[in-house]
Each structure stands twice: as structure tokens, then as C-alpha cells.
Write a structure and sequence with these properties.
Elements: H1 9-40, H2 44-75, H3 84-87, E1 91-92, E2 95-96
Antiparallel strand pairs: 1-2
Helix pairs in contact: 1-2
Length: 101
């Protein structure tokens, strides 16, 4: 993710969509297991690990949604940040420009 901005916009969006679809398929399965473990009064360790992993999946999906929203705002001109390929090595008022997309 550290060099994510080096990818073109379409590739970034495609990767985020693919990751979100993967997590969207996984989340209901984990929630079912989580519910079943609670009903079975499963051991605390396994239940705790599953609860943590499920919270990570939920958090990552929220993060992806936020990234997509920020990208959409940039496309509409809000907080627009130019693509890395367009500014590499260019200077504006003596400052070397870099992308933080």
C-alpha cells in the first residue's frame, strides 16, 4: 500500500473493488461462525481470535469505502491531487511535486 499512488487510478480502483468483494464474501461466513461459536459456548481463546479477525474485516471494508469516497471527491475536483505520472520531476514555485493519492 505504500506505493499505491504509483499505480494509475483505474488500477487502484480495480484493486480496491476486488479486495472489497473478497471481504464481502468472507464477512458473512465469519459472522455465522462467530454466532455458532457463541451459541456453542466455545472456548474463550478461539472466540476471541475470531472476534478480532471479524473486527479487522469490518474495519478494512470501512477503510476501503472511505478511500473510494476520497477518490470520488478528487475526481470531482475537491482536494484534487494530480497523478504521480503527471508531476514526477516537475517544480511549482521551486518545490518538487509528488503525489499523495
Amino acid at each position: 500500500m505504500g506505493l499505491f499512488s504509483a499505480l494509475d487510478r483505474d488500477t487502484r480502483e480495480r484493486l480496491l473493488d476486488q479486495r472489497d468483494r473478497f471481504l464481502a464474501r468472507r464477512q458473512p461466513r465469519l459472522e455465522t461462525i462467530h454466532t455458532d461459536m457463541a451459541a456453542m459456548n466455545a472456548d474463550a481463546w478461539g472466540y476471541s481470535v475470531l472476534r478480532f479477525y471479524l473486527s479487522q474485516v469490518r474495519a478494512e471494508r470501512q477503510w476501503i469505502t472511505a478511500l473510494k469516497r476520497q477518490a470520488a471527491e478528487r475526481r470531482r475536483g475537491k482536494n484534487r491531487i494530480v497523478e504521480l505520472q503527471q508531476v514526477a520531476g516537475r517544480r511549482f514555485l521551486g518545490i518538487l511535486l509528488y503525489s499523495y493519492c
